Amino acid sequence: MSEFKYVGKDIPRVDAWDKVTGRGMFTQDVSLPGMLYTRVLRSPYAHAKVVSIDLSEAEKLPGVAAVAYFGNTTRKLFNPSNGQVLTMEPHEPAMDMRLFTDEPKYIGDEIAAVAAVDEKTAQRAVSLIKITYRELPFVLDPLEALKEDAPAVQPVQVLKNVLGQPAEFKMGDTDAGFAEADLVVEDQVRISRLKHAQLETQCAVADYRDDGRLKVVSTTQSPHNALVILSHLFEIPESRIEVCAGAPYVGGGFGTRTGFSGKAEAIAAALSMLARRPVKYSYTREEDMTCSDSRHGGYITGRLGVKKDGTFCCVEVTAYLNIGAYATYSMDVLSVLGAYGICSTYHIPNLHYMGYGCYTNQQNAGAFRGFGTPQGTFMMETLVDHAAKELGMDGVILRKMNSTKVGDTWILPYPVGSTGLNECIDKAAAAIGWKAKRGGTKTGHLRRGIGLAAGTHGSNAWPFCVDYSSTYARIENDGSLFISVASPEIGPGSTTSMTQIAAESMHIPIDMVRVRFGETASAPFDSGTHATRTLYTVGNVIHRACLSLVDQVLEYAQEQLGIAKDRLKLEDGMIRADGGEEKADGCNSPDGVSISLAALAHKAHLNNRRFLATVSDFIPNTPPWECHGAEVEVDMQTGMVRVVRMVCAHDVGRAINPLLVKGQIEGGVVMGIGGALREEMSYVEGKGFYNDGFHKYMLPAIGDIPEIVSIIVESCDPTGPYNLKGVGECSSIPTAAAIASAVEDATGVRFHELPMTPGRVLQGLKEAGKI
């Protein structure tokens, strides 16, 4: 039986009524008086120079209020990701992008934008802009970009077409590690770009006022960071800018809007400043797919040294990721790929990781659920399965004997506070039927196989960046609790879990708690909803704020009741003394009485008192752990892979709301299945990415979703509020590796390229002589 009243319970979502009735507002729903609409002129070339541009016909078109381009608005370099705001000293953020450019570096780069009375007029005006380009050499592949004769995408820094210094992690002595290994396995994997495919496209409404104030409502996952970037771009004091994430909801994110929503906020703001009217810019689905950040694709090579008994001695991995034309989040992604995907799941005393972010003339790659860890995990688990096969060892045993344990030394700057990884491996293996089903001879044209893969991540953003959380809380006169946080609600239900934490910590009924979210004007700085951090970090400061409020309440109750504070407790909205019997008037009382929080708060108000708390703190980090088991069916005649069942065991520290945790696991697994089997951004030279809508991007449909079994493991981490850890990104991390392992079990062929499309599988089976 739970010791808590609200924590650990399947409390219904606080936003459920808004969502199911359609009353909940999103940025797309915002309409202001006199609002204008936007369309953007984008480059048709992968790399070019604007020789001339004539806006006159567009500006004369009736209904056009403003045309912005590189010649009449900000030319400041910036980075649209959180990296511009969160990069810690002595490091500096990569600032390589302009709002509009006269040297477009990918098909879709922004040249100009129009604000008009409607989108049709805006699009007509865009078509009237006369522009002459001079085409320039371009490069599309990350490995080609590294060659000496490749055209430079950005000014040469340390290495040609490489973002900054390569990401690097070293521990121990790799030469000695490989020398003591009895077996060394080597593999290379190739991973394609993926797109977030969130339901609400990038969108912003900007309203610049004559008094110099700017208000922006947008689909950002990081309203305070968007505010700081807007201040930098337009040289408006931060105190004159307000950013709201959604109205109040954001229709999904998965990383694509950590910082700006593409460039929606900045383009809308630039046009609003020119037109002096509210401006809305809503990306078309084509723009969203082909002109805002994707997940990084690229090449990863690695080798793993192992002793005869299965002990891992050494690992060496090099990643070459296609970051596109601009940096955005790429350096952080490269670091996380190595730190979590390669260096943390297993205790390997000697390791070396190098990660190269390769500029190309393609759309940017940035934050995507898992933030590089899925790519690194796919590489690492490929090596582990390879080693198990060569050693003739059971993959479950091999993983468990090498898993990171509490107290182990690793490359991350915080300790391994807790781990339930081995329990996750045991439970996933048992639930998928590992002992009974793994291995053996497979016959027939439909062949079943099972596999598993393990992984870890963080419960906060990359540890070498600014990432503190803040909250403001107050007790109202009626005894209810108001909390304001800047992290937006983008779908996972984090505000519901925050409400549970607040009610539990404050010891009041949950319907007496209100959490306001996603606004810079009402909440102090927070880096936003991303990085599996929200409940871990924001929940932590909410918990501390509530403890402060409880202390203030009991201090005041001591004054009013004349009873020592240590004899008072707040319980279910009542302040009780020993043997408490209720006293309605709230006057000074003898022992054995109680007073409602509402009565005490009202009395405090009448006596010029208010219970307030503001907490701001950096919450270090802690690793969640996970193991996924997959059962697949492979059609040897067509190459089609069908996932029959997924078993997902996750160490979440403590599940604040188990139903919401399972929802996060299931959603992430479906994204992992898509990336493993069908989702892929395909580039057509001279045209750009083929996938300009959902009809050309193979998202999993309802018929592709298998049975998903979610297993919650609670290791109760010491750093999280109520011992919780993160979960949001973790469920997409080992999924593809588990499916690849299962496909190998079914067919005898290991596939090293994602996604494992029917064509690739059929070709691989033929090359291996299986058909």
Short description:
With 771 residues, this protein is of the alpha+beta class. It is 28% helix and 23% strand. The protein is built from 20 helices and 29 strands.
Description of the molecule:
This protein is α+β, with helices and mostly antiparallel strands. Helix content is 28%, strand content 23%. The chain is built from 20 helices and 29 strands. The strands form seven sheets. Strands 3-4-1-11-8-9-10 form a seven-stranded mixed sheet. Strands 6-14-13-12-7-29 form a six-stranded mixed sheet, with helices on both faces. A four-stranded mixed sheet has the order 15-24-25-28. Helix 15 packs parallel to helix 16 and helix 18 crosses helix 19. It is globular, with a radius of gyration of 27 Å. The N and C termini lie far apart (55 Å). Mean pLDDT is 96; it is low at 580-590.
Tally of helical segments: 20
Shape: globular
**Percent helix among the residues?**
25-40%
Task: Tell me the quaternary state.
Answer: single chain
How much of the polypeptide forms β-strand, as a percent range? 15-25%
What is the C-alpha radius of gyration, as a whole number of Å?
Answer: 27 Å
Strand tally, please? 29
From the N-terminal CA to the C-terminal CA, the straight-line distance is: 55 Å
> Mean of the pLDDT scores?
96
Unreliable residue stretches: 580-590
Biggest pleated-sheet summary: 7 strands, mixed
Structural class: alpha+beta
